Amino acid sequence: MRVTLVRTGNILKVGLKAIFRNKMRSSLTMLGIIIGVACVIVVVAVASGASTSIQSSITSLGTNFIMIMPGAVTQSGARIFTGQSSLSPADADAIKAECPSVAYATPGERTSGQIVAGELNWATQIQGVGLDWPFIRAWNLEQGTWFSEADVKGAAKVCVLGHTVADNLFPDGDAVGQVVRIKNVPFKVLGVLEKKGSNTMGQDQDDLAATPYTTVMNRLQGHAGHRDRIDVIYVSAVSVDKVAQAQKEIEALLRQRQKLGPGQDNNFMMRSQEEIASMAAENTRTLSILLGTVAAVSLLVGGIGIMNIMLVSVTERTREIGLRMAIGAKGHHVLAQFLLEAVVLSVLGGAIGVLLGAVCSQAISRFAGWPVQIGASSVGIAFGFSAVVGIFFGFYPARKASHLDPIEALRYE
Amino acid sequence: MIQALVDIRDLVKVYSMGEVEVRALDGVDLAVEPGEFVAVMGPSGSGKSTLMNLLGCLDRPTSGTYRLDGVDVSSLDADERAEIRNAKIGFVFQSFNLLPRTTALENVELPLLYGRAAFGSEERLERAQKVLTQVGLVGREHHHPSQLSGGQQQRVAVARALITDPAVLLADEPTGNLDTRTSEEVMAIFQELNGQGKTILLITHELDVAVHAKRVVHMRDGKIVKDEPIEQVKAQRAEARARAEARP
Lengths: 413, 248
Known about the structure:
heterodimer, A: two-stranded antiparallel ribbon, 12 strands, 56% helix, 18% strand, B: alpha/beta
């Protein structure tokens, strides 16, 4: 046991000496692995950081979120979108009342317009919604109150401003209680929503004003003829694992309410937060795979670099190998020496690469403002992979060295 | 009867180069007793390098037997021969074959890395110091080969050959890359080692080098043609010189 240990130590020393005897060449050999590993670390760090930030901004949509929109209808065999919504505020009430997996539901009617306050004005999106909306979006008020049921019933001229809008119209922060004009209609500001930041697509979620949906329908749009048609219904399931159940219940209820026969397509569409999240996750995954492939290729190129240098090294040191064999080195000693050299080179390169990757990731996160996460697993994988590359690409040259004929190797010029 | 240290019987080595067969060794018999200093002489192509390779267990004979220190080594495989080389044979080459950018001490230690017994670094150092002292290189232990003269480099190589305390020292044209004066120095070391009881086999094509041995074996066309003690060689040389001087 002691003998084996001492001998292994000796062979290790021989390999290390050979590396340090050729500092320039060793560092150039490692460069390939260093770049490859650093690439893997940076790519994984940036991709996982991006996916975390996407996940968190999707969560900011509101938990258990489901959106129902009017969809295509089939008329006389042709699938068309009629331009007329199939959804009504009564549908939203029915969903909330009759679907056990649904916690909240509210009709939504969207428009956009210029909001004027004194000398300042701001163009924004106007969300006509109901009482449940803050619960569905998991969005609290920073100041003031939400509008009441009476406001909804009476299509009251009241509104709640998003943070961006409040900041732009009332720089002094005294928005609550003031009067603003939307499309020349005076509105009383009841409250200001707390700041939520940008969403997945980079849009500012705080750039909006919320009013009762009835107010949008009656005072801002004037839908002559079909006043009870709405753009969207926002729903929230009772819990995350009930989202799919809620969607089934809603579908069944709406089909019944729309009087759709068994063979007919739905004339509405549903999107859950889960679906939006999985779509976004799919996008980041594709990007990660793409970048990861590039990184893996660079690691492979680094490995080929090691093989190349090791082959040159074996040829250059043919006489040394001959001498070692003459004084008693067996084939496996020579094999171990060269294999070890390759593995030490690649693992050392891997270690430097991990450090470089960490530094680069930090730099990227600082300058580009992206969040990055360096996981222990990615460090482990990059490190292990570089060792495997060393063994894989070091084996052929090492085997070649160990199969040399000592007589010819000694005579080699 | 003393057991011969090197005992070669009817040794044949045939190289086949395509369709042509070359009999590099054609039935060689040779016995070397412990403590002998034998020079093998012959022109190039006489088979002395082939004999050297076989004596050094670097190669296997086509037929015949070779017993080294009582062990039949003619049929061993590559790994077994490596062990024999490490334990029983010390090589000294024409071109020194020292590792570049490696100190004299580390070069000398090298054979201990591959031995059957494992030596700790302190023991290796101690042994290396001892053999370097033996060849007169005290104070040069940490020099690299490039910082040493040819004669000094060859002495490092001799020290490397001695470190495992081998049964036979095999020197292949050890003075081929050296000038006359350093050749004499190196040969003096061989003679000194022989005086201490080392068995030495020397391959050379120069008579001036061979005369340092105690016995000279002449080879030609893969056969031993003459095997005589040094006194006889010297007498012949003196005779030839006298004749050359008398002629004009």
